Amino acid sequence: SIEYRNKGMHEESKKYLNKALKIWTVMGDKEGMSTAYTNLGDLLFREKRNNEALDYYYKSLALRKETGNKLGISISLANLLAVKLDDKKYVEAEEYGIRSLSLAYEVKDLEGISLTNKSMSLLYEKTGRQEKALLAYRDHIKARDSLRNADVTVKTVKLEMDYEYEQKENEANILQEKKDMISEQEHQKHN
Q1: 85-109, pLDDT tens digit by residue?
Q2: Considering Cα of 110, then 115, then 39, then 30, what sign does the dihedral take?
Q3: How far apart are CA 183 and CA 175, in angstroms?
């Protein structure tokens, strides 16, 4: 369904999400169900069908609360923030945003911290609270940059490990070549 969503083929995406939802419901897989509800909500939100999107986001949130999935709860709350912000229901949006950020910081979800702070910055800007908007935007940038730095660090470590592996492999090959030469020389001495 994600492939279809990314191609803008929302109806196809919904079809597959609904099939997955039925399977996860039969299996009793609450995490799978909450993911399907979230993705269906995302599609409806993209189509500006906010009330329907809210229904799915609320269902997802309820399941994530049942399972105690703090990261999932944070994501669901951030989705509710986005819809309420779009609907200009700023008080509700702020409540969802504050709760989402609290959990995102608790579980150290840098992506959630970044995206929710970006939304909160927009909320504060729209409600005339420029100082809070600036602070939230700063926190968005810090989290976003930390994500990028973490990605660069992972890539750097991988390159270093690859280099070290190649060096050790080269050393092993040279050592084997020396052993082969000595063995060949000894073989020639005996003949």
Answers
A1: 999 999 999 999 999 999 999 999 8
A2: positive
A3: 12
